[in-house]
User: What shape does this take?
Amino acid sequence: MDNIKRVGVIGGGQLAWMMGEAAQQLGIELVIQTPHPTDPAVIFASETIFAPIDDAAATAKLATLCDAIAFENEFINLEALMPLQEKGVCFRPRLQALAPLLDKYHQRCYLRDIGLPVPKFVAIEEEMGGWGDGEMGREGIENRQFPVPEHPFPVVMKARRHGYDGQGTFIIKNQEELTAIWQKIGNTPVMLEEFVPFERELAVIAARSVTGEIVVYPVVETQQEEQVCRRVLVPAELDPSVNTEINAIAHTLLNSLEAVGVFGIELFLTPDGKVLVNEIAPRTHNSGHFTIDACHTSQFEMHLRAVCGLPLGNSALHCGGAVMVNLLGYEHSHSDYLPKRQQLAQLPNCHVHWYGKTESRPGRKLGHVTLLLDTPDKSSAQALAQKVESIWYEG
Ligand code: ADP
Assistant: This one.
């Protein structure tokens, strides 16, 4: 066994904050690299290096203070970290497992190449190519040759790096919008993909240990509004064959990457029952927050177990089901919203998690609420989510 007792974490947002709670329970210390003293996870850190996430010199210092380094955030400078790994710094997952995932286009190519089902996609490159060949020339867009006739609008344009919560993702309905958005972000490398008229969006969290053990959490339904996750229904009501297929996708992906730690997998379920992989997060994920209150082992404990070389935990639900609702900022303010949080806490079987951010902005993730259910019933989960949202956004 590795005997890892001090884990470095690159990133100090709410994911690291929730890892902090799990670390305390496991008797593991966290050392955090994050830019601001007000970042949520700072309160759980035994030491903090205040530096940007992509500051590799700061990560070199972090490495001297811990036994292994984990990531809460993938906006890193991978190339600059490689020499550290070559000198023996233990990154978990190792950098080779992150390399194919950091750029959305490279990620899509990787998923396609290992045989996983993905939406049709194309990168806008200098070289002219065609839809399906994986590349298309800038001239294609500028000369209004896009989309190609067999793939009509809408299409989806995505910044290849640094997108999150729908930032950098644009659903484009017509040529005018395409031209306008291309002019706005045309200097950023982008990927275009077919719009998937999904029946539902699904997600699954899976973890792989140093020894190759894999555990998969229940598949969930995620509900996005304006490309931001609003609620997660647990478990997703699915045909068993779809569950089996998603489990197989998780195994293929994690084994192929030789991953260590928790990975989030976002999927589309099409109206004819096909599963497509939308995106991989090489870390803990918003769609897995329910695991803190609803599963035997939370995704955060699971991640730390994997990073520390411990046996993985139990990913099963200890209740019939759950619904998780994100508490998103809806105004600019410095409030801690205590009265609303107290009101939410009074709902039956309700767990309120507040990330301690000092500033609220529209769309910013400030906290989340998980309500546990006796039975997996979608309509009562949906009604509870509505109740939470009416207290939070209207109350
Ligand atoms: P981010 O990395 O910003 O979360 P995603 O790729 O996950 O970006 O996109 C955010 C949301 O936008 C998705 O959850 C989905 O609702 C919508 N979306 C993204 N790609 C497509 C697509 N190809 N077809 C339809 N909707 C999409």
Observations:
- Residues 119, 156, 158, 163-169, 193, 195-196, 201, 224, 227, 266, 278-279 surround adenosine-5'-diphosphate (CB under 6 Å).
- The mean pLDDT is 92.
- The two ends are 51 Å apart (CA to CA).
